[in-house]
Write a structure and sequence with these properties.
Chain lengths: 102, 205
Amino acid sequence: MDATFILVVVGLSSLAAALVARGHSRRRLRSAVGKTLETIGLAAVFLFLNIGVGFCLALLARVVGGRFVSLYHSDDVTILAVSVLQALVFQWSREPEASAGP
Amino acid sequence: MSARGALRGIGGATVALFAALAFTPLSNRLHGVLFPPAGPPGPAAAIVVLGSGIDHGVLSDSSLRRALAGVVLFRQRSAPLLVMLGPASGGQLSEAAVRVRLAQDLGVPTTALVADPRGLTTRDEARVSWEDLAPRGMRRILLVTASEHMPRAAALFRRVGFEVVEAPVEELSSHDGRPQVRLELARVLLRELLARAYHRAAGYL
């Protein structure tokens, strides 16, 4: 029921957004979906990278520093949010600069 | 395939995985298959409650659940000794010490309690428990930890010489249909599978 409720809410808000933006072409929508998937893909790559680096740093601290660092430090939801931010910045940095106005 | 195409593929797979884990019973079923419910635990020489986290003297939710499960087992006369594990954090009392106080407040006699804060990892906890219990001739133990953690923990405790009776604590319901809980189940599953892979690669299991 909870899952269905959320899907209905998201479906209704998406429908409303589609009505507001009905003047836009289908091609632009397809391009937007593509760019969104790219950003999500980048976020997934950053997430794996961050978890991998965290794992290596924890092991390095144990072996070289002789200090106990838990491998569970990377198991934090914040790392997901930060990975999304990294992906957004990286994605926008690849976009061409908008031309200056008159 | 171009970098853009690869990223779109990864993005699409991520969205599909997210939808499957959050909006279908996939996580619940995986959890049910990998961690089936345990039967009632039999008697043992000691109850060993594994650590789970403390922050400045405040037990984490899972630490509290495990400690209470240990106390319940003791009150059911499953074993005459209750061993609480868990290190200190933030220069305060150790998790083991806070749990022992809680057990005392719940009516467990001081003579039946042992606090050992030395274990930083599950492997450490198996070793220090062996140091605490083997000299007393206590080898058959009731092991209390999260159901997801139990297979790895039991294997580590068996490896040091214990005969382990599993007493898993259900920290997450595998029947909960809320997307947030399903994602949490998936996260815990993935974390435990990675931990098992690491332990196997390092030769600990």
